[in-house]
Design goal:
It contains three helices and seven strands; from the N terminus they run βββββααββα. With 146 residues, the chain is α+β, with helices and mostly antiparallel strands.
C-alpha cells in the first residue's frame, strides 16, 4: 500500500485519510467529494482581549508605579504597557486555521485542519496525489470518474 503522507497528525495512503485527533477521524479516499480548502481567521473572544489588556497594564504599571517617583518615569511605564499590549494583539491577529472540507457520505465534514501552513500544504498535496491515483484506477477499471 502506497503512503503519501505519514506525519504526527495525519496519515494518507492510497485508500484512506486518517486524521489523528481525539477521536480519530478516518475517511475512504474514493468517498470524498467536493474537496476544498478553507482559511479561517482565529479571532479571540470579544471579552477576552479587553480583560487581557487590563491585566497586562495592571501587571506592568502597579509594581512600577510604587517604585517610580517621577512623572516621567510613570509615563514611561504607561508607554511600556501600551507597547506590550500592542505587540500581543498584533501577533494574535495573524493566526489562521487552514481546513480541508469535503462531502463524505452526504455530509459536510472537516477532513483536516491545522494552524501551520507548511504542514497543511504538505497534507493537501498528499491528498491531491491520493485522489488523482484513485481516479486513475477507477477509469482503468471501466468505472466512471465522479
Amino acid at each position: 500500500m502506497r503512503t503519501y503522507y505519514d506525519g504526527p497528525d495525519a496519515l494518507i495512503t492510497e485508500t484512506h485519510f486518517v486524521w489523528r485527533t481525539a477521536p480519530l477521524r478516518a475517511f475512504v479516499i474514493v468517498g470524498l467529494r467536493d474537496i476544498r480548502l478553507v482559511q479561517r481567521g482565529m479571532s479571540g473572544s470579544r471579552t477576552l482581549l479587553p480583560a487581557a489588556t487590563v491585566a497586562a497594564v495592571a501587571l506592568i504599571i502597579a509594581p512600577g508605579w510604587l517604585l517610580v517617583d517621577t512623572m516621567g518615569g510613570r509615563f514611561a511605564l504607561l508607554g511600556a504597557a501600551g507597547a506590550a499590549v500592542t505587540l500581543a494583539t498584533l501577533n494574535r491577529r495573524d493566526m489562521h486555521r487552514w481546513e480541508l472540507r469535503a462531502t463524505y457520505q452526504k455530509r459536510e465534514v472537516v477532513v483536516y485542519a491545522s494552524l501551520e501552513l507548511r504542514t497543511f500544504n504538505q497534507v493537501t498535496r498528499a491528498l491531491r496525489r491520493a485522489v488523482e491515483q484513485s481516479g486513475r484506477r477507477r477509469r482503468e477499471s471501466g468505472m466512471a470518474a465522479a
